[in-house]
Design a protein that fits this description.
Length: 212
């Protein structure tokens, strides 16, 4: 079985560490990307067996890159490796088509297990996180972010980080008018009137961290 991997993370030190570990485990890193845009191009070029990808990157985020890769091949295998241990990110990733989700603070053996399982055609979510996701699905009545489509969630995330509509437009390669319309849809769905309300909601549900 071929064991080629594309690493996607905007931190070179993280990529270096992962490449070393993966090599020890018998996998071959065929390319490294520091952004969602380059991840898509390198995936098309190398067609790796697995994409190991972070979510938070400058420009195109991991969720958007994931969807664009899957739009090119529904059989692509993407494992999200993120600092976010919040259920909302894991749920969004799985809903978008990721084959697995591993938190960066987890033991490296969990990452190895996930890579191995997904390479063999399976899916992987760490047990504790899976339990939390199951509980969330049962108690989904008060989950306003579930109302957002994947594209709306990405725009919501960038707005909460303080990105302007122009920056979001450029990063997602969509028109300014489209971003403005999406922003309006987000505010209507979440019943928020101001950007401050939106940021507060993002902090409340773990999408961003409080700066205080």
């Amino acid at each position: 079985m071929s064991k080629t991997i594309l690493l996607v993370d905007d931190h070179a030190v993280v990529r270096q560490g992962l490449k070393s570990l993966l090599s020890q485990w018998g996998y071959r890193v065929v390319a490294e990307a520091s952004s969602g845009e380059s991840a898509i191009l390198l995936w098309q070029e190398h067609q790796p067996n697995l994409v190991l990808m972070d979510l938070d990157m400058p420009g195109l985020g991991g969720l958007e890159a994931l969807q664009r890769i899957l739009a090119r091949s529904k059989d692509a295998k993407v494992l999200i490796y993120s600092m976010h241990d919040d259920n909302i990110y894991a749920m969004r990733a799985i809903q978008a088509g990721a084959k697995g989700y591993v938190v960066k603070t987890d033991d490296v053996n969990i990452l190895l297990e996930a890579v191995d399982k997904i390479m063999k055609g399976g899916k992987f979510i760490e047990q504790k996180l899976a339990q939390h996701l199951a509980i969330d699905l049962i108690n989904e009545a008060n989950k306003p972010l579930e109302k957002l489509s994947p594209r709306e969630f990405e725009v919501f995330r960038q707005l909460a980080l303080g990105n302007s509509l122009s920056i979001i437009s450029n990063s997602l390669n969509i028109s300014y008018k489209t971003v403005a319309n999406i922003q309006t849809q987000i505010r209507q769905k979440l019943n928020v009137q101001t950007t401050a309300n939106l940021v507060h909601l993002a902090i409340q549900f773990g999408v961003t961290q409080s700066k205080t």
